[in-house]
# Entry
Amino acid sequence: MASSVARVFARGFHVSVRRHALTPFNMPAMSPTMTEGGIASWKKKEGESFAAGDVLLEIETDKATIDVEAQDDGILAKIIAADGSKGVPVGSIIGVIGEEGDDLSGAAELAKQAATQSSVPTSKEPEPSKKEASPLPPAPEAVQSTPKQEVPELQPGKRIFASPIAKKIALEKGIPLAKVKGTGPSGRIIREDVDNYKPAPAAASSTVSAAAQTPAAAPSSDYVDTLISNMRRTIGTRLTQSKQELPHYYLTVDVTMDKVMKLREVFNKTLSEKDQKLSVNDFIVKAVACALADVPEANSAWLGEVIRTYKKADISVAVATPSGLITPIIKDAGSKGLATISAETKALAKKARDGKLQPSEYQGGTFTISNLGMFGIDHFTAIINPPQSCILAVGSTQPKFVPAPEEERGFKIVQSMNVTLSSDHRTVDGAVGARWLAAFKGYLENPLTFML
Amino acid sequence: MYFCLQATRRAAPAFGANIFSRWTQRCQQIRRFSAETSTAQAIDSDHEIYVSTSINPYFNLSLEDWLFRHSPETKPLLLIYRDAPCVVIGRNQNPWTELNFPALRAANTPFLRRRSGGGAVYHDLGNTNFSIHLPRMSFDRHATGRLVLRAVQSLGIDAHLNDRNDICVGLEKVSGSAYKIVNKRAYHHGTMLLTTQLSALGDFLRPQAKNIITKGVASVRSPVCNLQKYAASAMHETFTSAVVAEFRKEYGITSELCTATESQGTAVDYIQRGMDELNTWEWAYGQTPSFTHTMAHAFPWGDVVAQINSKHGLILDVSLTAKNTRMGATFIKDLNRQCQALYTGQRYGHLRQNEAHPAATPLTRNLGNEWTEALRDVDEWLLRTTSAG
# Structure
């Protein structure tokens, strides 16, 4: 798909992917724990355009006044939550944004839909209430449009006649062309057909009632739509950006975990009196920190003009929470013992799941570890969190047969764990990455060397 | 050279600005005759620790804002200042539901609206304000709260942080905090009661207006006390030193502190403009979120209930209902019509101070005597009830 887009751009066409791109603007979460806030004042008027970086509005939450900036250029098509609205839940719709050249008349319609369905407390003033709009005007449209869509499905294998632009838009939007009725010459599917096909699923998806943080989905037999929360949106943007901009490359190695397992057992016997328990992950964090001390190039960040090499290893540990992925940080892991690392990891993970992490606890970090071993994953490659340079993907530990001439049988069974290091080639060359991974393997296969 | 107070002043300046303008004018005059050099060097924003010698709240808030917007993005910054008696409300508060205007008027004490959120506080020379500026990415209000807490504890006081991040001793609050966050920077600023006149605090922060439903942010009231109650050594100088020391320790700052004087600061255009802006009706009152004020009065000719809707400090509409009135059936309709004409668009709390308004002159109507009387009664009553002085 990237190549076809490139080809289109090469031809000099302006392809507007989001042609009817009136998008809802949601109340942002200014911290992972924010649940609601007040709109202090909009800094742009309806119809006014803005550039990326402009302050769109000022919100107040918990004694802080915060400027909310625009991420991209656009036009403020409609303000839904007016100045002075209080208790606006994070994620609820507060306005409608469009792009330059968009038809903004649809904004009022979108605003009505949002007002009828959302639970945003709007002004108590005697304004003509938008809530009086008849419930879900798009719903009858959807019902009417679906009969049109009931086209005899093309038999598999038959060619689909569609214009190139229709094919492109359908591909981008994920619309199955087989289901679209063509109205062009000889029943050809043209762009309008693909665009008009949108309203059916789009209308159904707009029948979402926005709840506070985890918006509920529209019930339907075939699919469920969930409004994108701020966390999901952030994850999406950052990881896409990372994959697109960083030259990732991957190094993989199998680590023999027998000695770690034995040492862990021994330590846990001692620590069980204090009600503490070490996990394999704690050993991995420590080995990472030791290896980073040996190969500091892997503990660096590409900052545009300089490469910053950190002296301390602040390790971000990926934690899966119900609302998404977050990476609390264990600061200066190299100077901490296994027990400290263990206690901190547990405390941070608990805070992350409760949504109580402070920004300083998850922002920053110089290296990330992502462990999917507990899900039985053998091997995977992870996506680097910029501006970090590396991320270590850890798989599960499994017994493996290895040749062993010293054994009678000629082989032995070892506990083997696969790890894959994703590195940014701008800061970490292949040989450097390999050196780091070798150092890491060395430490983890001989955990007593942590003490050196 | 004459720095402050240009001649341009918009109509009806904010109450209290007059006091400071007169005060500053006097200071300027004194300075002109003093031996001090009158061409003050403008202050620069490259230091990390600032202590203001000015007690002009308009200056100190503008200095804070200027430092916030102009100091290097990645360096931590600390500012300490004290104000002459005044009341400061949060960015999105309603002064009428927060303050006691009659008391403020009687004591000639001004009120200001600051740029950060939160509630209303009283400043006087027994209160010291701190302001910690950090890059947004590393801003953590609990960390900065703990920094100030350690400074208080170093004075030998057993203080703690409550769940709203305010410093308390026992059950009483000694400090209130507010925050402002923009793209790259954030600040945590707050008060510290050392030797404040607590009776004045209680008096000024006791709103007199009743029956106002507001969208503004409400203050959270708490019992307060002075730090000096717990440690005789707690005063401006010792507290300032303690905070500076903790700040140096936390962020490893070794550079000299900068003493900011008002003449140095007002040489900076941004600061001067900021002081003027804080002084305008548009900022002090015009930033008030929407509210509805309902009031009732029994006149000899009937019982009237009036409801005033206001937004941004201006009256959107006035509606009246009357009971037990011996006036004719069309009386109340006409009264409403007259009031709409008179008051819509006027500044709530400053009725008839906006000379530009066409109905600024007192009522003259060629209605029957009774009606004119009634209208005048209502007018006087509304003026009295809403007047902010």
